[in-house]
Specification:
single chain; mainly alpha; 64% helix
Length: 265
Amino acid sequence: MNAKIAMDYGDYLHLDDVLQSQHPLSPDHNELLFIIQHQTSELWMKLMLHELRAAIRNVADDQLQPAFKMLSRVSRIMEQLVHAWDVLATMTPPEYSAIRPHLGHSSGFQSWQYRCIEFACGNKQPAMLEQHRHRESRLAEVEAALHVPSLYDESLRLLHRRDIKVPDAVLQRDVTTPYVADKGVEAAWLEVYRDPDAHWDLYQLGEELVDLEDAFRLWRFRHLTTVQRIIGFKTGTGGTAGVSYLRAMLDVELFPELWSIRTAL
């Protein structure tokens, strides 16, 4: 009689696969930190994409309550990613210099999951597809993400369905291009925010979006300071401008009218 073998904790989580996926290329002690930092960040990004894509579908279907839960979760994941930089920041410039020659041209700039997150949040940059042309399957996924309406696109379409006037040019815009702030959209959000009792779920949606962008800004800032602390103003391993590029990203606004209305209210 065969004994039944129960699935244990390690089996369920495939821990053998996960814990054997770190393969340092240098003899330096600190490379394991660098690898695990980025692997765990990619796992959190996988969950972020799962939640963001579901939230976008729910907003498109007028199912706001589950969308709010998903967006709240995304903001909390962002907080985890912000604090992850605290661990990497323990790596000093000499320690990073010891492993850098072994990284080749690999760079976080090539993270296809991060690019899909940016696209889902509305920072559509078609030129970024070039980073993924060496992997046809990944390129297809990122390109598909480029063509899907963003979270903000679907939020503005929802306002329109709720009889809040949104300019036709915004509703019919090419969703593969970066969103540009519009006075008509600002007026639409002002209508919501000036009478939250009449538009409570739209008002809450606006605040969920602000929470998400707030967390995203903190992540970008912490990324910038960590990179500057470790490599200064050197060029990134993938050929990017490094700190100067990250500094420019701090000026990107995902949901601009939700910030500008603060002044008008």
